[in-house]
């Protein structure tokens, strides 16, 4: 390497033409052809030495840059070339293959469920709503919902599922439009988030833990200490009525949506005793007479449960929007209750009737 650097340094020095003053160049007689020949000879020797060293050395000799006359970093340039080649290959092969659109996003049904008008058979099929239980576990009352048998498993008719789901959406939307309270119940593992979101959209209540027996039939003892509030037609709370609410009976839901009826048959029995309508997902092994509005679907599929809960929650939200739009025009879609707003302690009544009548849209 030392011999190579020395030869290269002297070769450049010989190859570089010297700038002589004009007077000296004209005054002296120089054999230009001899100088050019010597330069060519020196450059040939330099290239021959470089090739010899390149062949004998195990590592490649870094090349010399023409402008700065310095050796280039061979490894750095190799990494850059490899990176450029990889990018070039990606750009060439990125258009190859198939692109599956639209594809399933696990959190899409929780954050952005479809509207009731967007219910379709491909959506229900992708959610595994058609899969039932084994033929040995079926309930004969579900024969009208079964499409056929495949590999020993009952297949639920998606046409009937879509029709019953649209009917349940109209029921939930009608209840919320008239100021009713909807209770969403789902006590299986993984159903808590969809139950909470559906109750938030419909401005109702939710339950994702064990149902306490007697919450409806013996609600005064179990739920007697729960706080209630009175709201107007715009769902704005009305203060000053807390004392009157203590004497009122425990609040009961106007509609119950149950996502797993098999585990909550006690709750469904209590709703039937008090005439509370219910909506539930009925699989092939469940009894469809337990609920008022059955939805034949796969209750074991979390994706199917999230779809049903999200669609019903959005239906309740649509009912709320219609009720508020009518309230802006001065229309009330329900029969309001009258409360007397009594003066608080320390306030004195002046002349006239000081009792203000407030219309309550609901309490919760």
In short:
The protein has twelve helices and twelve strands.
Determine the mean pLDDT: 79
Distance separating the two termini: 90 Å
**Form type:** elongated
Largest sheet: 5 strands, parallel
Task: Provide the spatial order of strands within the biggest beta sheet.
Answer: 5-4-7-8-9
Which residues form runs of ≥5 with pLDDT under 50?
20-28, 346-364
Query: What class, by secondary structure content?
Result: alpha/beta
Number of helices: 12
What is the ordering of alpha helices and beta strands?
HHHHHHEEEHEHEHEHEHEEHEEE
Question: What share of residues is helical?
Answer: 40-55%
- Taken as a percent bin, the fraction of beta residues is 5-15%
What is the radius of gyration? 42 Å
Strand tally is: 12
Question: Would you give an account of this structure?
Answer:
This protein is of the alpha/beta class. Helix content is 41%, strand content 13%. The protein has helices spanning 2-15, 22-27, 32-56, 74-93, 108-111, 121-126, 158-177, 192-202, 219-222, 242-245, 265-273, 302-328; strands spanning 131-134, 146-150, 153-156, 182-185, 205-207, 230-231, 255-258, 278-282, 293-296, 337-341, 356-360, 362-363. The strands form four sheets. It has a five-stranded parallel β-sheet with strand order 5-4-7-8-9, sandwiched between helices. Helix 1 (2-15) runs antiparallel to helix 3.
């Amino acid at each position: 390497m030392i011999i190579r650097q020395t030869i290269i340094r002297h070769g450049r020095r010989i190859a570089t033409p010297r700038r002589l003053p004009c007077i000296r160049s004209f005054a002296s007689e120089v054999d230009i052809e001899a100088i050019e020949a010597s330069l060519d000879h020196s450059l040939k020797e330099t290239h021959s030495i470089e090739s010899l060293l390149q062949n004998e050395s195990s590592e490649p000799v870094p090349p010399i840059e023409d402008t700065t006359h310095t050796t280039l970093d061979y490894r750095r340039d190799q990494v850059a070339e490899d990176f450029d080649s990889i990018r070039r290959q990606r750009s060439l092969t990125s258009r190859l293959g198939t692109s599956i659109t639209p594809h399933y996003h696990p959190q899409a049904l929780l954050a952005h469920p479809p509207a009731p008008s967007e219910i379709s058979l491909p959506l229900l099929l992708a959610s595994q709503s058609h899969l039932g239980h084994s033929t040995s576990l079926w309930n004969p009352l579900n024969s009208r919902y079964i499409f056929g048998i495949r590999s020993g498993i009952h297949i639920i008719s998606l046409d009937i599922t879509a029709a019953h789901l649209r009917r349940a959406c109209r029921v939930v939307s009608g209840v919320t439009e008239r100021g009713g309270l909807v209770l969403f119940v789902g006590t299986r593992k993984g159903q808590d988030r969809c139950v909470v979101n559906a109750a938030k959209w419909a401005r109702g209540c939710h339950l994702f833990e064990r149902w306490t027996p007697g919450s409806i039939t013996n609600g005064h003892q179990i739920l007697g200490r729960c706080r209630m509030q009175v709201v107007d037609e715009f769902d704005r709370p009305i203060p000053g009525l807390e004392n009157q609410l203590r004497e009122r009976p425990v609040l009961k839901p106007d509609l119950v949506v149950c996502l797993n009826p098999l585990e909550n048959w006690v709750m469904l029995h209590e709703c039937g005793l008090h005439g509370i309508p219910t909506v539930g997902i009925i699989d092939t092994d469940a009894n469809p007479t337990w609920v008022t509005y059955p939805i034949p679907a796969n209750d074991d599929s979390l994706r199917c449960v999230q779809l049903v809960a999200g669609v019903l929650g959005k239906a309740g939200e649509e009912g709320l929007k219609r009720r508020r739009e009518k309230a802006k025009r001065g229309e009330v879609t329900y029969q309001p209750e009258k409360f007397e707003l009594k003066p608080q302690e320390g306030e004195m009544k002046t002349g006239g009737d000081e009792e203000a009548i407030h219309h309550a849209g609901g309490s919760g």
